[in-house]
Amino acid sequence: MKLIAEAGASKIQWGIVNNYKVFEFKTSGFNPNISDRNYLRQLLVSGFPDSFNPLHIKQIQYFGAGCSSDKNKKEVNRALQNFFVNAENIEIFTDLEAAGMALYKHESGYVGILGTGSAFGYFENGCIKYQAPSLGYLLGDEGSGAHIGKMFISKLLLNEYSKKITDEFYKEYSTDSKQLIIDVYKSSKPNAFLASLTPFVKKHIKDQAIQKLVQSSFKQFVEKSILPTIGIEKDFSIGIVGGIAHHFQQDIFNLFESYKLNKPKIIEHPFQSLISSVLRSCK
User: What is the CB-side half-sphere exposure of residue 43 using CA atoms within 13 A?
Assistant: First the structure.
């Protein structure tokens, strides 16, 4: 049996491929820059389906956030090998490679991620040839759910929104300003917590202040990641995956048009394309 994983900071989508059939399940997310390998193993201990034996998993392809460095790839490999002890072949890829495969398959183009975090690079011949510098949710991740959430909370705590917006937020999330600060700084996965606030932002996107915030976040993504990567020539194919890209796609389309960039292809989840590729390779 073969196991496929597409891992982000908020959730991991898993697929067990057995006799050309796929059994899918989900766990909480994982990023080796934030949590150690024991956390990933615990996700599998509690989340791996009882109807399958982990000892029967022979091959693993893991596409994950935070897996660009050799150190993090080794950490993820060790966690997987510790749980799937009979696995003979474990391959670790970046989440940007997963996005490239889902968007382009065997073709080439620029590829981005706008989910809990963000990333951008150039995909060619099945791999990422170049990736724009990624500074994580504390110093970067512009355009991501974590970045939008961080900007939103900052302005909320500084009373920059209307009383209606402020009161509705605290009521919907059953919190107040003091507890909100505690939740940000004490959360085990602060980037995922910040990203979890984006549904509220999306619901109130017609509010002028919130719309300005979202536009600012996406502009920073374009100006810090996309434009320095593609250079002067803008007539290139660009694809973006992720929940933020999907739910705010019209805002992204409008922004790209203002920068005279081609309209990007947007996919919410690359997982199904990854699974399809695996099934084709099994035939």
Answer: 24
